[in-house]
Amino acid sequence: LYEAYRLGGLEGLKVLRCAYFLFVVGVFCAYFYRKVPFPLLMALAVCLANGLSTRHFLRPELLNFLFLQVLLILLLRYEKSGEHRLLFVLPLLGALWFNLHLGACIYGLTLLGIFLLSSLVSALVSRVYGPAVEVPGHWRRSAALGLALAAFAAAFLFTPLGWDGLVSQWKIFFSPDDSRLFYATLKYIGESQPPRIFRWGIMWFWGLAVLGVVYLFLNKKRSWSRFLLYLVPLVMFLFMGRNSGFFALACAYMVAASAEDMGAAGAVKPAMWKRAAGWGMVLGLLAVMTYLMWGKAVMKVSNNGRLERAISRDLEDYHLAEGVDFLKENGITGPVFNTNILTGGYLLWAGYPDLRPFQDGRSIDFRRTIESQAVQAKP
I want to staple 229 with a disulfide (CB 3.0 to 4.6 A). Which of 90, 102, 254, 368 is the partner? Predict the structure, then answer.
């Protein structure tokens, strides 16, 4: 990210963000191409793109979107084929993912737990209601998934930052004496609250939620993994809005995998008009995604008198770039009070390490935030 900023400035970041988001949604489309009906695939892609765009910030969190898909593909293929070699990749995936973002722990372990629990439930159901010949296979898969989960978690130990790097994330979450202030005020951040699901900007959620329920009922296999892959991310999202990307990916993969279970793709080649309409949807999706990702990449509002706009928001009252330039030109350093996450983001890009945001900027209760910081700042 910083190389893109150094070489191309904010325009370089915009290009990088567009390319990455198109690639992420492209992975989903490529994996399920010819496995599910094309109209369903495009509908899921549109909902997925809008869901992921809610977590568009230029930070390592973006990598979760790729790692989650790799893990989902491996687990879905293993569930279908039972090839244990597919699980050998998980320790390497865990080590790389954990060293880039804590999502490996939060989302990676959750996904592995979902498939492990599904396998255990299937084994128990087979023992009680099914033929005895199926039980050993279920137990072997459960044991393999349990070992894979343990190996995935153990891979977190492999970090070039040593013990301090390993426990750093846990100290941020659980240590009341930790000097870093973000998670100390986590409950006062808007995106950590339950999402407002009854508004136009979250129609992608209703699209995925409805499709998920429909395909859970239509899928005659009644797979436990499909049910848990829908329910657990849904509960996590309704509890905390920042889990929107996780729900979007998990639900999209669940619906597509359920459609594949049903053999819904069919072997009949679609009519010419359907193929043309499908490619029209693809081109439209690419245009919409490019517009959204390009517009939302705005971190600097005003640059040498030129106004930058984020979609349709009016930002003429903000002159952030000139303010940061003034501080730098006059040798003023230290923490800068910021009341908006976009201003804090630009301070990190343009002013670090001499200028640093005073606080996160997303707080819904500034008084509580400042009080929490004052308490932790005491010797």
Answer: 254
Structure token pair of residue 294: 């390009």
The reported pTM is: 0.78
Residue 275's φ and ψ, nearest 5 degrees, are -65, -40
Interatomic CA distance for residues 55 and 299, integer angstroms: 15
The 10s digit of each residue's pLDDT in 9-20 is 777 888 888 889
Which amino acid would we find at residue 351?
Answer: G
